Amino acid sequence: MPESRPRDPLPPSLLLLLAAAAGIMVANIYYNQPILGLLAREFGADGAEIASVPVLTQVGYALGLLLLAPLGDRVERKRLILITTAALTVALVATMAAPGLASMAAAGLLVGLLATVTQQVVPLAAQLAPEDRRGRAVGVVMMGLLLGILLARTLSGFVAGLAGWRASFAVATALTALMGLLLAWRLPRVAPTTKASYPRLMRSLVEMFLAHAVLRRAALIQGLLFGAFSAFWSVLALKLEAPPLHLGSSVAGLFGLIGAAGALAAPLAGRLADRRGPAFLVIAGAALVGVAFIPMGLGGNSLTALVVGVLVMDLGAQASMVSNQTRVYALDAAARSRLNTVYMTLMFAAGAAGSALGAHAWALWGWPGVCTLGTVMGLGAAAVELTAVRRARPMSRLRGGDRC
Question: What is the pLDDT of residues 175-198, one digit of tens each?
Answer without folding.
Answer: 999 999 999 999 998 888 888 899
